[in-house]
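Colleagues,

Please find the record for the two-part complex below.
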Amino acid sequence: MAEMQVAILLHSHLVDGLLVQGDEHRYLKSMCARYGLVYSPPGNGICHYLHLERFARPGLVLVGADSHTTMAGAVSMYAVGAGGLEVALCLAGQPFSIPAPRVVGVELRGRLSPWVQGKDVVLELLRRRGVRGGIGCVFEFFGEGVPTLNVTQRGTICNMVMETGATTGVFPSDERTHEWLTTQHRAAEWLPLAADPGATYDEVEVIDLGGLEPLIARPSSPGNVVPVRKVAGTPVGQVCVGSSVNSGYEDLALVGAVLRGQVVDQRLVMTVTPGSRQIQDRIIRSGTYLDLVQAGARMLEPICGPCIGIGQAPGSGIVSVRTFNRNFPGRSGTDRDQVYLSSPATAAATALRGVITDPRDMGEEPTLPPAPAPNISADDQHFLYPPSQAEAANVKVFHGPMLFRRRRLLYRRS
Amino acid sequence: MLIVVGDDISTGGLSPDGVVVMSFCSNVEAMANFVFRRLDPQFPTRAQEWGGGFIVGGHNYGQGSSREHAVLAPKQLGVRAVIAKSFARIHRRNLIAQGLVPLTFADEADYDRVRQGDQWEISALHGNLERGEGECRARIVGAAEELRLQAGFTARERQILLAGGLLAYTRAAE
């Protein structure tokens, strides 16, 4: 059995201020202290970005209580989503098992053209295979195109590859991984990992990165993918940039650079969400945050938020273009919603024009502002590490009245 | 048979996204009132009036998020098993973890024979699981033929189901 490391960070799903969420946060905070887990408070970021930045390590297995746990495959973790109870039992030392998946090798050739992004790579996989085409599979990426993708782009691909039904996706650990871990002050955790030379796969997909064009998933399935140009001109009432799949520093830096000095079309509302406090800190220092504010984007805190309909539910019949990973019916919080899923580049072009826009129509891709080094304490100083075992034994786990019913159901002896 | 739904039903169909429902995310009794809200708003009432039962789904039932509410809420309404053409991986495991049995049609064409309101009996299931048999039979009350269902489980999954769920299984193993 592989070495297993499990860390739990809270998924910043929820609206603060509702009585229920307040009680939940208190419960989780006390539970983490009592049982020896790292607690990341609301506002610190989406767990998948926090993992990539501060915890994920090449070569280990990660089991997480969220389907997009697969994102950590970007740094060569074997990262698998599971239900909360299975993860809790892993924490208690119980084994975790999954059926051995078929291995699909995805050979990446060439490099992405201007305005085409990591999101378009995973949308291409979804275009080819649909939402069932990865069931029982793990996607292993290899080939000369791999080093052209940075960890943010790899994270986008590994996150959303789950929408094919895949067990997970994995990139090799290479120089780009080393760069990422170095900027996170974790270079010592790097090790090189790649498929053996001449490795064979159950199946091989070849993607010519240079041949890809901007893609978009139409309502209401991530598998409903077409080229952006096919739906270009559709009037749009909302653009949302963010979620666990596309709120990395490079994602937001490009959107800021596209919007710089302009304002978003007045027919629509735009929101932008950084994936973590570290990313928020970095876009503030790079000037991106100000560019976005001045362009009229509504800046949200690092949160999952609109991706699961917690805020920004679009108006009835309004087309919403989102850089998110899911557009299942009603997921935005609105009945009969019309949600499209695109890259940040497509979202930014659409925000300026007010209609779905192929970003290649915007002229030359803008140069990004110089990227400031990540400030790792932006996340870290807010993590609460558990106290000593002696102190932990005295921590009382909080149970508010709003949590009672769930406990009774979950812990009832069958 | 409480409801027959189509292909690619996401866990958000069972446990809807949005501020209203998610504000109940620690209150399964309240959340159960929203199961299949967009597909069939009468489902929770019907499930309770009929004293629980089964759900039938198409391919890729339970795709998407790993949320356990998509099992806890139907369980609260008395759902005991889900019969589908195929399941999404995480949701299938969540069903097993809560002691709800995910079964598949041996013959996919049988999906078209299922009608909401039919009364099903899968009486030998416990024994089928104990003996590790990969198939069981469902009798539709009032119909002559039986449906063949696949009960494809690993040994551990069978034991979890027989124990009534993952927590009970873990307790019993200690």
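Chain B has one domain: 3-173.

Comments are welcome before we finalize the supplementary table.
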